[in-house]
Amino acid sequence: MNPSAGLHRVSSALALLALLVAAHLGAAAGDMPGPRVLVVHSYAPDFSWTRDLHAGIVSVLQGPEVQGRYRVEYMDAKRHHSPEYIRQLLGIYRQKYAGERFDGIILTDDHALDLMARHWAELFPGTPMVACGSMSVSAPTTFPVPFATSPPPSRSVNSPPTSLPSCS
Length: 168
Known about the structure:
Blueprint: H1 3-25, E1 36-41, H2 48-61, E2 69-74, H3 83-96, E3 104-108, H4 109-123, E4 129-132, E5 147-148
Parallel strand pairs: 1-2, 1-3, 3-4, 4-5
């Protein structure tokens, strides 16, 4: 996948995140600096899929209309996915992000989605999330937070979905 394809894949998710962030903050985008976003990648940056998705995400976040401030985590779950590794990773995230608040979280692929589905309330309560690149959902079927992979056709931002849409 080339970077423009990566950008195309994440554009609708990022557009939804921007809307969710604006609704979450209750303010117009011009009233404050760009959103603070956490990007959680399932895999390491040496995978072309991850690099392409990241390039697309960053191209939007660094754009003049968004000017987002962002942090990035690479779970490296392709190589490390044991329960002990996930426990250690959660410990790092608990320590690293204690007291930090983000306006939105972008998740790429299934491992990041699964991790946040299970530990969102503890790590980032109330923070809107979007996901891209997920092929199957092993996560719980409901999220207590605005969440989507793309704008749902029959819902507005004021009534976000409460269940995970199918990922494509």
